[in-house]
Structure formats: C-alpha cells, structure tokens
Amino acid sequence: MPHNPAAGPPQDESLGELVAQASDQISTLIRAEIELAKAELRFDAKRVGTATGLFAAAAFIGHLVLILASFTIAYWLVAAGLSQALAFTIVTVFYIVTAALLVLFGWRRLKGLTKMQRTARTLKHLKGGPDELDSVNAAKLPEGAGEIGARRESVTDGR
C-alpha cells in the first residue's frame, strides 16, 4: 500500500517496506525517463530526416544552377569574341583549378589531425602500461599541453 504524505509520518511501515517502495518508485521514474527520451529521439529523428531531405534537394538544385551558370559564363565569353571551344575550355580549367585548391586545403586540414595522441596516452596511463607515446611525442606537443590550470594566475596578484 503506497504511503500518503499528507497523512503524516508512517508509524507501522518497516524499513524493508520503505526500501521496496523507494526501489519501485525509482524504477518507475527511470522507465518513464527512458520512454520520454525515446519519444524525444523519435521526434528529433523525424525532424533531422526531413531537414536532410530538404538539404539534399537544395544541393541538387544548387548543382543544376552551377551547371547552368557555367554554360552562361561560357556563352558570355563567346559573345565577347572568344571561340566556343576556348570559352568552354576556360570555364573547365577554372573548375579544375578550384577543385584542386579545395583538395589541397582539405588535405592540409587532414594533416593537422593529432591522431588522438593525448587520449591514447591517457588510456595507456590508466591501464598502467608503458607510456611510449610520452617519449615519442614529447617534442611535438606545445609546452604546458595537458596541464589544466597549471598557469592560472590569481586576479589579486597584479593589484
């Protein structure tokens, strides 16, 4: 029988009964929270799916616009006096150079990855294994890397 808080403190309930009630209430609360999380996740997943479809449609239309704009630029060059072959070659070379620059910038961004060196070192340290990453990568990390709050100064020192 559940306890009614308005009736005052329980007089005849044992500690075991109280623990059982608390356990049951916690279990019910956790199940309700899980159901709420599932419902929110379903709702968010539907919205993400719809947004993804809209972005894909926009990307497709943007691609078509790029193709049409390429033809327009090429024909403007023809109207400016260039031969048709030269005008289309100029537009094509422009896109090749643009793509090459994007690949170059992307490649440089990938080279800057740290390969999770700090995480790997921490996991090795937590497992109690040898920390070979420290000796190999000590020169690569900036001074003070991984020292949280080690260089923090007091705000009252400068007064």
Automatic annotation (TrEMBL):
Transmembrane segments: 54-79, 85-107
UniProt-listed InterPro entries: MFS_trans_sf, Phage_holin_3_6
Pfam families recorded: Phage_holin_3_6
SUPFAM superfamilies in UniProt: MFS general substrate transporter
Keyword annotations from UniProtKB, A to Z: Membrane, Transmembrane, Transmembrane helix
Keyword Transmembrane: yes
Keyword S-adenosyl-L-methionine: no
Protein name stated in the entry: Phage holin family protein
UniProt organism field: Spongiactinospora rosea
